[in-house]
Amino acid sequence: MLRTVKTQHISNPERFKKQLLLWSGQFDEVVWLDSNNYNQKYTSYDAVLAVDAFTVFQTDYYDAFNQLKEYQTTTNDWIFGYLSYDLKNDVEQLSSNNFDGLQFPELFFFQPKKLFFLKGNVLETHYLNLVVDELKEDVDSISQTEIEDEKEELSEENNIKIKLRIHKDEYFSKVNEMLAHMHRGDIYEANFCQEFYAEDTTINPIETYQKLNAISKPPLASFLRVYDKYLLSASPERYIKKEGLKITSQPIKGTAKRSLDKVEDEQLIKTLSEDIKERSENIMIVDLVRNDLSKTATKGSVNVEELCKVYTFDQVHQMVSTVTSTVNKSTHPVDIIKTTFPMGSMTGAPKISAMQIIEELEATKRGLYSGAVGYFSPNDDFDFNVVIRSILYNETNKYVSYSVGGAITAKSDPLKEYEECLIKAKAMRTVLEN
Fold first, then answer.
1. Partner of 136 at 20 to 30 A CA spacing, among 149, 160, 316, 413?
2. DSSP string for 215-237
């Protein structure tokens, strides 16, 4: 399927980005990726928009990766979409039986007719030849899209009532159950998540996403629309990227709050970087990611480029490690994802036992939360985030949800873990409750 690629100069990229996202509201299939100008060496574009499906592939977990492999190979073009956490059931003998209020398909990808890549002042458009005559009209329409004043309140008065799927006492008892598994030697780390939700609720997805993104400004933000279902994600975490033969994964483990006082904020960074519990959590997951990458890596190529480096975001400080490997040219890109999925930071160690215990103790099917959103390019590169710090919305069911989790280790204090969850939930709650 041939595309026409054109480049043009954009005089005000920040304004154009806002116009581009608003303009995308007319389409049923949308993936928007935004790096928020975060200075990170692994960023390929400042922003990407894929809209308007020419072909679509969606399925449940059964044989999902083989089917995705076939779709990606035969399409041989840009495809954008997501992998839900429950594809774990295709990789291992696992199941997902918890409550699901969102009802997203377990895997969804589409081949967009229209693609926009923004880097600095340069806009690159990749239009399928069958719609290339619409390009000029589209760019004019985008440039004329009106942006409402940032300072205005959200247009709809939000009276959203957030409920907890697991209440505080129950959370403590579940964490204690997890600790009992650790003391018995079943696992030594697991990511335990809880859902916050609102029923019979209507939101404006693009407006809500813009507000969430403005609070957090993360490097791997994404807005996704699949018909009546939406993801508004302020994710700071990269799951996995392929560039040429190099694979990069960047697990996050370790969180500290921010302070408006510069001296105190510096101290919070120092405390996090030296915290033995946080470092051990991070290192356990680095080991797991190294093991996952080794399944497709050329011999001796798995390398830890950064270990426990503290990155600062608008809402929190996070401890990030960067693990890389090299693959053979003959390795299929989907196999690299299949052998590393789900992201180690969202599961635990050993991975399979952790996923079994998580399923037992959590109250909600994770679905797209802790899955991944991203794309494959025609030359078999890919880039995916981890879906965290995100609001999920089913417009038909009027159901809004966000989940947060934390790594539990043998040294975990249930109260501190609960408080860390509330720090992570703050941005989503602020946006929804206005």
1. 149
2. HH--TTEEEEEETTEEEEE----
